[in-house]
Amino acid sequence: MRSAVFSSTADVRVLEPRFRHSHIFSTFAALDDGQAIELVNDHDPLPLYAQFEAQWPNGFAWNYLEEGPLLWRVAITKVPTFNTHASGGCGGA
User: Could you tell me the maximum CA-CA distance found in the chain, to the nearest angstrom?
Assistant: First the structure.
């Protein structure tokens, strides 16, 4: 089995809780399409998933790599989103 390659690891266990989400968001925002971060946390980051849905709908993939009870690891991959404005609209003649 092939190991995942991550562009960055965000081990937020070492950060104060008030800084965790902003660190994760800025790390994710800096990724190119197709790149991923490995999130390492001391609890299930499910509330963070909802924030990703609000900020990047359809722009990320979320895959649990390890699910507790003391350690959670999640691969968060930036996926390309289709922008109709950039392509010139519906493509009609």
Answer: 58
